[in-house]
Amino acid sequence: MDKIVIDGGVPLEGEVSISGAKNAALPIMAATLLAPGVHRLHNVPRLADIRTMKRVLGLMGVTFEESGGLMGPPLPEGALLVDTSNLTGWMAPYEVVKTMRAAVLVLGPLLARAHQASVSLPGGCAIGARPINLHLKGLEAMGVKITLNQGYVEAKTKELKGAEIILDFPTVTGTENLMMAATLAKGTTRIVNAAQEPEVGDLASFLVALGAQIEGIGTDILTIHGVEALSPAPYKVMSDRIEAGTYLAAAAITKGKVAVTNAPVAHLTAVIEKLHDAGVRCATSGDRIEVQPGGGLNGADIKTLPYPGFPTDMQAQFMALMSVAKGASVITETIFEDRFIHVGELKRLGADITISGNQAVVRGRRHLSGAPVMATDLRASASLIIAGLAAQGTTEVHRVYHLDRGYANLVEKLSALGARIKRVPA
Ligand code: UD1
To answer: Is the pLDDT of residue 258 over 70?
Structure first.
């Protein structure tokens, strides 16, 4: 298993281009099941989670091509052809769902296309219990019969029917599953208290391109009028706001001068505002955000919330930044109950952090110092990389497979910005 070794203390400088959004590409790949034929997707990031979704869909008879040749001329970087003509299965097994919870996104599309699905329950997860009860309750309202059998959700329906669904919490993948199922249901579905995350909007735009009828995209009430059939359409996946935010935090912690390009600027408002509060100067223009070395870093409080609030997926990275800011910061996590697992590792680098329930108080230190640390989940790993870039001496981040799930070419991108970082066998 590889590790990442960083010699910290180098201000980052240069330009970094943001890849396609993992959390938009995954539901869009699942949604291709709804429309038999060949789909041409663009800006799909090359990530472990994307390969896992290909494995899941592959078990259902879906085939892929990303270099071109077989289905036509060579394909550009980030393109992915998905052939969903033949559906031969409807099961997402435990071996896959346990490594990537987003595999549950096949549930809605399979019910719409094959009227049945068998999906392993995701079970526990490093950042909390993460149940799927709201997905299932919404599907039941649409006429799906659900039974639990040996850890699997067995779902069947004669016909999906439109329904009024009020979500207790604006679950992201839950909203996506229900919206996908509703596109081919008989009648109209209204999802109230829907998640407003931009990735939900990107999926909705893809579904509309396939021929779906959806109103209220980007709001908390989605109205979906079911149609008879959908057909393939080319689509470019939005760029990744969390990857962009991670590079902004990396630039800020090293007091660097970095331009983040191809960034979904409009979707980063809460993150950019917090960076401003912390004294980080960010200038935006088009799809470009420039971080400039300014005065010192100041402590700032954050509270994670559903979009458009501050994203939980940026909490760990912001905590790393606050660990070298002047003064104290209070970080409140409201989305996931156990999302402070990075704290112990940040402390090994010298951070001063106290946890009480869902709040962490970070007292900024002048310096962090390099140490071996263990990555525990995707965003926690990113926070350790950010801390390592600022720490004095050498930081070794172990279990880097977590990073491979969500950051395309991380080491290459940071090296190009001047970081002393390498990936080596552990
Ligand atoms: C998605 C993102 C993840 C992000 C999260 C919150 C993808 C693939 N993943 O995860 O990166 O951190 O949104 O922005 O898009 N809940 C229930 N019952 C349910 C569903 C959720 O109680 O049926 C709870 C969860 O336990 C959690 C909260 O709702 O406390 C938010 O979860 P949810 O929005 O569903 O997150 P994911 O869709 O899993």
So the answer is: yes
Q: What count of residues does the chain have?
A: 426
Specify burial of residue 147 (Cβ count, 10 A radius: 0-12, 13-18, 19+).
exposed
pLDDT digits (tens, 9 = 90+) for 323-352: 999 999 999 999 998 899 999 999 999 999
Architecture category of domain 22-236 in CATH:
Alpha-beta prism (3.65)
User: In this predicted model, what pLDDT tens digit does every residue of 217-236 receive, in sequence order?
Assistant: 999 999 999 999 999 999 99
- Fold of domain 2-17+296-425: UDP-n-acetylglucosamine1-carboxyvinyl-transferase; Chain (3.65.10)
Tell me how far the alpha carbon of residue 251 is from its chain's centroid: 21
Ligand 1 centroid from CA 173, angstroms: 6
Mutational pocket test of ligand 1: of 29, 96, 173, 315, the residue with most ligand atoms within 8 Å of the beta carbon? 173
122 falls in which pLDDT band (50, 70, 90)? confident
In this prediction, residue 97 carries a pLDDT of 87
Same fold, 2-17+296-425 and 22-236: yes
Is 55 near ligand 1, meaning CB less than 6 Å away? Answer: no
Beta-ladder partners of 188: 225
The helix (run of H) or strand (run of E) holding residue 206 is helix 198-210
Coil, strand or helix: which one is 32?
helix
Average pLDDT of the residues in 154-179: 98
Residue ranges per domain, the chain? 2-17+296-425, 22-236
Pocket test for ligand 1, best of 119, 168, 200, 335 (most atoms within 8 A of CB): 335
Predicted confidence (pLDDT) at residue 66 exceeds the cutoff of 80: yes
Cα angle 313-315-318, degrees, rounded to a multiple of 5: 125
Strands of 216-316 (E only): list them.
221-225, 235-236, 257-261, 281-285, 288-292, 302-303
- For the cut 80, the answer to whether the pLDDT of residue 74 exceeds it is no
Catalytic residue among 59, 114, 125, 208: 125
What pTM does this model have?
0.96
Q: What is the sign, positive or negative, of the torsion defined by CA atoms of 296, 301, 303, 307?
A: negative
